[in-house]
Specification:
CATH class of one domain in chain A: Alpha Beta
Distance between the termini of chain A: 49 Å
Largest sheet of chain A: 6 strands, mixed
Shape of chain A: globular
Radius of gyration of chain A: 19 Å
Distance between the termini of chain B: 34 Å
Low-confidence stretches of chain A: 262-266
Mean pLDDT of chain B: 94
Number of helices of chain A: 9
Radius of gyration of chain B: 19 Å
CATH topology of one domain in chain A: Rossmann fold
Number of domains of chain B: 1
Number of strands of chain B: 19
Strand content of chain B: over 45%
Shape of chain B: globular
Strand order of the largest sheet of chain A: 6-9-10-3-11-12
Oligomer: heterodimer
Largest sheet of chain B: 10 strands, mixed
CATH superfamily of one domain in chain A: P-loop containing nucleotide triphosphate hydrolases
Mean pLDDT of chain A: 92
Order of helices and strands of chain B: EEEEEEEEEEEEEEEEEEEHHH
Low-confidence stretches of chain B: none
Chain lengths: 266, 300
């Protein structure tokens, strides 16, 4: 399968965030997207998932050549797009088990029935692989989870749902070294010709465990440079200023746009 | 009398219609008055019952009783219920009104608690029709306490008007009200929740929590939480939080492939779970779960 983003312009509340972005991901490929804060990396993932707050001004998102812009969030998910979120949402009263079971059932044909025994075994295996501990099935979705547990739970869902394209949006944030290694191993094990991975990250450390085929640098809402592992090393050592200098990019006077607020003490 | 299927085999069943009374429990029934003797779990089924317009439940000192009351009606009914708890009674009451066609229900519940008595009240309201429910708790004796948990799911164009009053009439009395409200379609849920602490009834506690979710643009929830306190040495608090379903939760579930109906239904079932979990009888729990999910899945 192929996911192609063509000349995509996206805004939120009249602020243009994506500015003519192009990207093509084939099944089996792993792409890393790096870039300074507020450059639109998470927006890209959310727009592909269909977040209703973003407005596509022009351009297209094609899945195997078919536009998915008119598809709803749940339809995109069922078509094979997955987003491991930067801030997974807590849903009190809904158990992980019921949630994932419902998510799998939505992917089944009308005459198909979920084989519950097989499902339980798969769930338990995924849970063990990610060291989620006993009782995960009956815990409420992300409620009371540590930051690391939430991120691992995103990967667990990815393992259970077998997407065709997965965006991992800063999956490394909030993970300690051991958890990062575990997540990296689990994601690497999932790599196959049937999965296209898009890793959004600020740091090299995630890419030590999940090796990308392509590394893209995103600045001011578009991909400005594409390279390989060498690019990561240079970013890690020198930051992004050299890219801006090399390409003659002026800093935009734009603040990162947030969809929500963080609780803070004043 | 048509006893609901899941109640048919219950031991300690007491069932009324206007011409028949079935009494499988050790309960003395005189006209409109029930006095509970042996046993600690009773099921009361009222099938279109309004012969006396009044039912009285009496509990003796030291009794520990769970009472499940199901009111079934296919005509409009007006009833008064009173519960008299002697000293040191521990009473759990579950109430549920069932109607297969749109009817009206006017019900007044009065609970009178003497010293050291405790009342745990669970009201599951999934009633199809207009409801006018008044619930008054009189904490007459010292150290008496009441916990009221209520789940109300309103659908169609039904109006549910509920008034909950707790009167702290002695020292060291405690009351806790938790309301979970969900309105669908064009339904209106109108709540007045009041706690009264008279002067001199010190060391009392009175708390109210009201949460509401409106699942359609034309549904309404109005809650007035009120505290009338004429005594300094008390603890009290009240609040009401009403809104639409959490958009972030909805988006998260949709992003995993659940349809909007499935996602909303799952979020609402999570929202009602703390109430449902409090129902100790498995059959009743299943009955309430099925009633609420039928209502919610229809429109979520």
């Amino acid at each position: 399968m192929t996911l192609e983003i063509k000349d995509l312009f996206v805004s939120i509340e009249n602020n243009l965030i994506l500015n003519g972005l192009n990207l093509k991901v084939n099944g089996g490929e792993t792409h890393a997207i790096m870039g300074p804060n507020g450059t639109g990396k998470s927006t890209l993932a959310q727009v592909c998932m269909g977040h209703p707050s973003y407005k596509v001004e022009s351009g297209d998102i094609l899945l195997d050549g078919e536009s998915i812009l008119d598809k709803s969030v749940d339809e995109r998910s069922r078509l094979g797009i997955f987003l491991a979120m930067q801030n997974p949402i807590e849903v009190p009263g809904v158990t992980n088990f019921d949630f994932i079971k419902a998510a799998i059932q939505t992917r089944m044909k009308k005459d198909e029935h979920l084989r519950i025994g097989r499902f339980i075994l798969k769930f338990e295996k995924a849970s063990q692989d990610l060291k989620m501990g006993q009782g995960l099935a009956h815990r409420f979705l992300n409620q009371g989870f540590s930051g690391g547990e939430k991120k691992r739970n995103e990967i667990l869902q990815m393992k259970m749902l077998n997407p065709a394209f997965a965006f991992l949006d800063e999956i490394d944030s909030g993970l300690d070294v051991d958890a990062l290694k575990l997540v990296g191993q689990n994601v690497t094990e999932l790599k196959s010709q049937d999965l296209g991975l898009i890793l959004i990250t600020h740091y090299q450390r995630l890419l030590d465990y999940i090796t990308p085929d392509y590394v893209h640098i995103m600045i001011n809402g578009k991909i400005v440079k594409t390279g390989n592992l060498e690019l990561i090393k240079r970013i890690d050592q020198e930051g992004y200023d050299w890219v801006k200098k090399e390409l003659g990019i002026e800093d935009e006077d734009k603040k990162p746009y947030s969809l929500g607020t963080c609780p803070s003490k004043h | 009398m048509k006893i609901l299927e899941f109640l048919k085999d219950k031991e300690n069943l007491i069932a009324f219609d206007n011409s028949t009374t079935i009494n499988r429990a050790d309960v003395s029934i005189k006209n409109n008055s029930l006095t509970f003797k042996k046993g600690n779990e009773f099921f009361v089924f009222l099938d279109n019952y309004d012969a006396y317009n009044e039912l009285e439940f009496n509990f003796h000192s030291q009794q520990k009783i769970k009472l499940f009351i199901i009111v079934y009606q296919n005509k409009s009914i007006k009833m008064d219920y009173s519960f008299n708890l002697d000293d040191s009674v521990e009473l759990e009451v579950f109430t549920n009104f069932v109607s297969r066609r749109k009817t009206n229900n006017i019900s007044n519940f009065i609970y009178n608690l003497k010293e050291n008595s405790s009342l745990k009240l669970l009201n599951a309201i999934t009633f199809n029709g207009n409801l006018d429910l008044n619930c008054t708790v009189n904490l007459d004796g010292e150290k008496s306490e009441a916990t009221i948990d209520l789940l109300n799911i309103g659908g169609f164009s039904n109006k549910h008007k509920v008034r909950q009053d707790v009167n702290h009439q002695s020292k060291y009395t405690e009351s806790y009200i938790n309301n979970w409200l969900i309105s669908l379609d064009n339904s209106v849920l109108d709540y007045s929740v009041s706690g009264f602490i008279e002067k001199g009834k010190e060391f009392s506690k009175c708390f109210q929590s009201n949460k509401g979710i409106m699942l359609s643009d034309s549904s309404q929830i109005a809650v007035e939480p009120k505290l009338y306190i004429d005594e300094y040495n008390v603890e009290a608090g009240h609040g009401a939080a009403i809104g639409q379903i959490d958009e972030l939760q909805l988006y998260y579930l949709l992003s995993r492939g659940l349809s909007e109906t499935e996602a909303k239904s799952l979020i609402i079932s999570g929202y009602t779970l703390p109430f449902i979990d409090k129902i100790s009888d498995e059959d009743i729990r299943r009955h309430v779960t099925s009633q609420s999910s039928r209502l919610i899945r229809r429109k979520a």
